[in-house]
Design brief:
The complex is a heterodimer of chains A (382) and B (179). Chain A is built from 12 helices and 16 strands. Chain A is an alpha/beta fold. Classes of the chains: A alpha/beta (382), B alpha/beta (179).
Chain lengths: 382, 179
Amino acid sequence: MNICIVGDNIISSLGMTTEENICAIRQGISGVRQYNDYLGVTEPYAASVVNDLLLASYCNTLHISSEKFTRFERMLMVSIALASEGNRSLLASKRTLFVFSTTKGNVELLDNEPLQEKFGREALFLWHSAKKMAAFYGNPNEPVVVSNACISGVAAQIVAKRFLTTDLYDTAVVVGGDVLSKFVVSGFQSFKAISTSRCKPFDAERCGLNIGEGAGTIIYKKIEAGDDKQYVKLEAGAITNDANHISGPSRTGEGLYLALNQILQNGSHKAIRFINAHGTATLYNDEMEALAISRAGCLSIPVFSLKAYIGHTLGASGVIETVVSAHALQEGFIPHSLGYEQLGVSLKVNIVTQQETIIPRGECIKTVSGFGGCNAAIRLKL
Amino acid sequence: MFQHQDATVKQFLSGVYHTLNLDYMKFFKMDALSKLGFLASEVLLDVTNGNTETGLFFANSYSSLDTDAHYQQTIGENYFPSPAVFVYTLPNIVLGEICIRHRIYGENVFLVGCDCQSSHLIQYVEQAFDDSGLKNALVGWLDCYEEYCNAFVMLVSRKDKGSLELNESNVNQLIIKKE
């Protein structure tokens, strides 16, 4: 039995579908813009924002009312609908489990009394939001909600994989999402972590991240080995901790190195076509990742970050970026690591300087790291 | 093991800290949720020399809402966002604090649910033991918001070889409840 991707969706500044996003990435198009005095934050910052007109249009078609559902909820619900391609019975099945990934859910309601009046204070509870969304699609199970900072999207996939090994479920709908808010932007700005221009992961001139919003959905299904040749499979996953500092990455890349080591255990480095890194373009994160990649013996493997295309979408990032990885394997390409010009980390990581064509076969790795010293890595195989 | 009538959550948590005779200055920078989880782990875990075989699995219903509300106050009319507060506006930070203290490098997951049963926490822990080399896990429910706090934490260990049995003989429990 293998855990296979049978459906997916990406919603970001680049578009409302996986196809639109992949197409834009292949053309080197970025959805990051500079914002001045946006969302009540006067200090300028570069961000990646979902188009509200497009979102409204999809919500209209799908009968997802803005009277009943918050912006955060509507984004995730549209993503679920598009990933499932109208297969309502799959979503409503008792043997389907929803696994949500989000860092802040409806946090924008915290300083918005009118919105709290409209949706109720219970909208501030992540589990309440998740339940509402799963119920809209008729699913009878309590959804799982993973809230593990920026590793949530990958952690949620590992959680989903574990639940799929039980007899209770055949399908897991993994949905990650977060929306831009004054809360989150101000917070990252207080760390001086946000750049005012498009970010430059692993580059010598990198100066911070681009904050993003979006949603991503992956539908994982248990399929018999032999019947699963055309699907990208989730082969292995690991979640670890640096045990070092709650906001700064480990100076030895301990947690990420251990996670990489764990997922490479049963496979060979040679089969790995690329590593889709976290690459937030902060000074410390990229250096830590380079160190971990080196310690894990992966310096020759092509590495890229997607953050200059769609920003750091927090709870959505692990899911969205896994979808891109899966499609890259299937379509036979490795994305250009946008924003990179000159090596700015102390180990010679093999950053992808222009889009590569590869045979659509093999394995890839997606890594993530987050506040709290957490790290995660998964290995996909086609 | 520790009782303090009529104390606020803050006083209660400080009280436990002093009763345990701890000497860990970082404690005083933590938010309530992290203090709660940290104290539970102090009772149940020993400091190790780098442990990849212990996991941390927690859940709650409030996520980091208590600290979120505090942070929100720093970005109101008097705009002074504090990184020291912002970092705690994520429920998994408590896992990080415990990992740092006990040098745990292993799996750490935070789930959010209406109650422990709905969060799928226990089922997840059982699966995690089944398909990994985990030997021990700190598992629990850690919920707090303003003057409400409710924690139930247990240390679960793999018995001999083979599958894990969640029973009295290999479960040490800590219950803290304040309403």
